[in-house]
UniProtKB/TrEMBL annotation, chain A:
It is an enzyme of class 1 (oxidoreductase). It catalyses: N(6)-[(R)-lipoyl]-L-lysyl-[protein] + 3-methyl-2-oxobutanoate + H(+) = N(6)-[(R)-S(8)-2-methylpropanoyldihydrolipoyl]-L-lysyl-[protein] + CO2. Pfam families: E1_dh. It is found in: Mitochondrion matrix. It comes from the Eukaryota. Belongs to the BCKDHA family. The lineage of its organism: Eukaryota, Fungi, Dikarya, Ascomycota, Pezizomycotina. The keyword Transmembrane helix does not apply. This is 2-oxoisovalerate dehydrogenase subunit alpha.
Length: 473, 337
């Protein structure tokens, strides 16, 4: 005989009126009808399907072909020889300020060479240079307001340098010493700026402390993840200004390569930024290669710029080796991003990755040395600005030599200082997982401490600030 | 607090309690934003009903249909000091957002280090669990995938009262929280819920019923099944069972669990999601690894959970731990004493 150990009534109580599994579309009976309500007028020339308003009817069966569209042009102000080609251009900076920009580009470039070699000598674990992209990063960053927020991919040393990251800041991160903002947790080149100190405050007051200070979020290795984050951050800035109209208008700038633009996050970001009207400037560094993959294997459309239009985003392509063009385009983009309550803008900055992808890459395995040499000789953002400055008469060989030597000295000084510093306390490996150490983490910290006590000769604790005592609870 | 305890209450089901918590959060902090697929009209499970009308389309809005976009967008907001509450329509569809959750939200505070920034303001809500006919993609309980990620808090309430208090804690928490809502309870579970705001502590288990001979550890919907089974077992077998609701499945409340098992000497972990590498695996391993608790064990720790298979439409009732399987588990323990 079938017996039931289950009190049916108690089960019924739980399972009564199960929720219907609702399809992923709102059911039309819901009642609320939103603004995009459309209907077809009789005799209209245009289709009024809700998905494409103002699409004209046609009786011509014709596919839209990418080849029907001319390749989007590349805006430039100064040509490869330093001549001004856009006659409407006026130098908006004093000669001294231009020299400063040039020196920042030079600093990044000299630091790159030194650190690349240092990695080859085994003095740091990893490095990535940004040769060929100095104008793009320094130029765009020079337009951003101090209070704007920036997300980078990893090849934007110039952005950090331009926005106040010092040589010491770079070196402390690269050597992952105790002064590193990232507490020695990240690979080299994963910089983050400490412009602001958010007190890990509670709840409503958090953003009161963060509002007015622009900053650069710490670089993370996963490609393109920063792009939708930038859209969200921009929406946050917009909402903060709605909540407090005395705040200055701010934008978010986000950098990524043309390879990263193949990630799903790129698609998600541009679409969400457009639909939510986020004041964000997307800056794509199209340098021709993603590690070994040339753009021909990355996409078949007209670069990244052509996609912006598809998302309903105002877009421009610019010569990334021309710092003046990059500056003008970024200036205009920032202005536009703040119009109409905020909107996204896409900039595709064309350049050439002169260097290897990273210290773990030998790019001559997949491209000809002559191609690289050709780019270095023919067109290079530093030499282009140098030619411009020399033509204008405020720069010469002697100044060049002096600047080069003094920057080199500064880099080496910061290098050796950072290399000598102790590593962060071992304790910091357990911290910042959560706001507070959990009981589980405290127990593991103690376990590690006991272990180090037991096997003191197996580990080199002397290089860590405080040795094993930092693990004391 | 006494003013909540003595204050007014209202009969609410689970989705109404969630809705009430969200309305409370929106009202008390202008930095709270709610978004996801189809949340503006009230959500496919009604959890966001009227919120867009009451708090404005700038604060409660639909996103394009992109889970990775929703998560990335939420992280960016949180990193700028906002309190985003993102919704993933079904837990089954969280995987496109997995990279953003694992590599970004969970690691944000850690990699930022001294800058002090984090994605701690982020709360991600998602309906989960079996619903009788959800099959492969409307039934999943992926909590153990999240419990393997340092940096996230993973929470699952069992009832309307719990849901409101835990959700408000999650939204106020400065750690990113994954808030999983057993959708079978959205309408089924009804109880009196205080109308004023209150919070319940995260990472704190609750002893639902004290007992002497067996500890059952569970969370979410199976707690009801456990309750029915243990009532029957106590009546039939003359033993007494202690029932614990983990509430936060990671970081979980080890002390409460250990203390209970030290007392009873027998322990069973029950969950709906599959047994392999599930929450039960971690809880039972931790119990036997704790020297003091291990010495008090009188029987192996057992797990009653979903089989290691996908959720097939027609066989759900044979997968999810039911009263009979839990009853049988308790009975096996009774035979040992």
């Amino acid at each position: 005989m079938k017996t039931s150990i289950i009190p049916r009534s108690s089960l019924r109580r739980v399972s009564r009126s199960l929720p219907r599994v609702t399809p992923r579309f709102p059911v039309s009976s819901i009642g609320v009808r939103f603004a995009s309500s459309v209907s077809q007028r009789p005799g209209s020339e245009y289709v009024s399907f809700p998905g494409a308003l103002k699409s004209a009817f046609t009786s011509d069966l014709k596919f839209a072909l990418p080849s029907d569209h001319p390749t989007l042009p590349t805006y430039r102000i100064v040509d490869q020889d330093g001549n001004i080609v856009d006659q409407s251009f006026n130098q908006d900076l004093s000669d001294e300020e231009v020299i400063q920009l040039y020196k920042t580009m030079m600093t990044v470039s000299i630091m790159d060479v030194i650190m690349f070699d240092a990695q080859r000598q085994g003095r740091l674990s990893f490095y990535m240079v940004s040769a060929g992209e100095e104008a793009l990063s320094v130029g765009s960053a020079s337009i951003l307001d101090k209070q704007d927020v920036v997300f980078c991919q990893y090849r934007e040393q110039g952005v950090f340098a331009q926005r106040g990251f010092t040589l010491n800041d770079f070196m402390n991160q690269l050597f992952a010493n105790k002064l590193d903002n990232g507490c020695g947790r990240n690979m080299p080149v994963h910089y983050g700026s400490k412009e602001l100190n958010i007190v890990s405050g509670f709840y409503q007051s958090v953003c009161e402390t963060t509002h007015l200070i622009g900053h650069q979020h710490t670089v993370s290795s996963p490609l393109a993840t920063q792009i939708p984050q930038a859209a969200g951050a921009a929406y946050g800035l917009k909402m903060q200004r709605i909540n407090d109209p005395t705040l200055p208008p701010r934008v978010v700038a986000v950098y990524f390569g043309e390879g990263a633009a193949s990630e799903g996050d790129f698609h998600a970001a541009l679409n969400i930024a457009a639909t939510r009207s986020c004041p964000v400037v997307f800056i794509c560094r199209n340098n021709g290669y993603a590690i070994s993959t040339p753009t021909l294997e990355q996409y078949r459309g007209d670069g990244i710029a052509s996609r912006g239009i598809g998302y309903g985003i105002d877009t421009i392509r610019v010569d990334g080796n021309d710092i003046w063009a990059v500056r003008e385009v970024t200036k205009k983009a920032r202005e536009m991003a703040l119009q109409d309550g905020g909107k996204p803008i896409l900039i595709e900055a064309m350049s050439y990755r002169v260097s290897h992808h990273s210290t773990s890459d030998d790019s001559f395995a997949y491209r000809a040395r002559v191609e690289v040499e050709d780019w270095k000789r023919r067109d290079n953002p530093l030499s282009r600005l140098r030619k411009y400055m020399e033509m204008k008469g405020f720069w010469n060989e002697a100044k060049e030599k002096e600047a080069r030597e003094s920057i080199r000295r500064d880099v080496l000084k910061a290098f050796s200082q950072a290399e000598r510093e102790k590593k962060p306390p071992i304790r910091s490996m357990f911290e910042d997982i959560y706001e507070e150490l959990t009981p589980e983490l405290k127990a593991q910290m103690k376990e590690l401490r006991d272990h180090l006590e037991k096997y003191p000769d197996e580990y080199d604790l002397g290089q860590y600030e405080g040795g094993k005592s930092s693990l004391d609870l | 607090s006494p003013e909540v305890k003595n204050g007014t209450t209202k009969r609410m089901n689970l989705f109404q309690a969630i809705n009430d918590a969200l309305a409370t959060a929106l009202a008390e902090d202008e930095n709270v934003l709610i978004f996801g697929e189809d949340v503006a009209f009230g959500g496919v499970f009604r959890c966001t009903m009227k919120l867009a009308e009451d708090f404005g389309a700038e604060r409660v809005f639909n996103t394009p249909l992109t889970e990775q976009g929703i998560m990335g967008f939420g992280i960016g907001l949180a990193a700028e000091g906002m309190r985003p509450v993102a919704e993933i329509q079904f837990a089954d569809y969280v995987y496109p957002a997995f990279d953003q959750l694992v590599n970004e939200a969970a690691k944000y505070r850690y990699r930022e280090g001294k800058t002090g920034r984090s994605a701690g303001g982020l709360t991600v809500r998602m309906p989960c669990g079996g619903v009788g006919h959800g099959a492969l993609y409307h039934s999943q309980s992926p909590e153990s995938l999240f419990t393997h990620i340092p940096g996230l808090r993973v929470i699952m309430p069992r009832s309307p009262l719990q849901a409101k208090g835990l959700l408000l804690s999650a939204i106020r928490s400065n750690d990113p929280c994954v808030f999983m809502e057993p959708k079978i309870l959205y309408r089924a579970a009804v109880e009196q819920v205080p109308t004023s705001p209150y919070t319940l502590p995260l990472s704190k288990a609750e002893i639902l019923k004290e007992g002497e001979n067996v500890t059952i550890i569970s969370y979410g919907q199976p707690l009801y099944t456990c309750q029915a089974a243990l009532q029957k077992a106590e009546q039939d077998l003359g033993i007494s069972v202690e029932l614990i609701d983990l509430r936060t499945v990671y970081p979980w409340d080890r002390e409460t669990v250990f203390a209970s098992v030290r007392k009873t000497g027998r322990c069973m972990v029950v969950h709906e999601s599959m047994i392999n590498a599930g929450v039960g695996a971690e809880v039972s391993a931790a119990i036997q690894a704790d020297a003091e608790t291990f010495l008090r064990l009188e029987a192996p720790v057992t797990r009653v959970a979903g089989w290691s298979i996908h959720m097939p439409l027609m066989f759900e009732k044979f997968i999810i731990p039911d009263v009979a399987r839990i009853y049988d588990g308790i009975k096996n323990y009774a035979g040992l004493s």
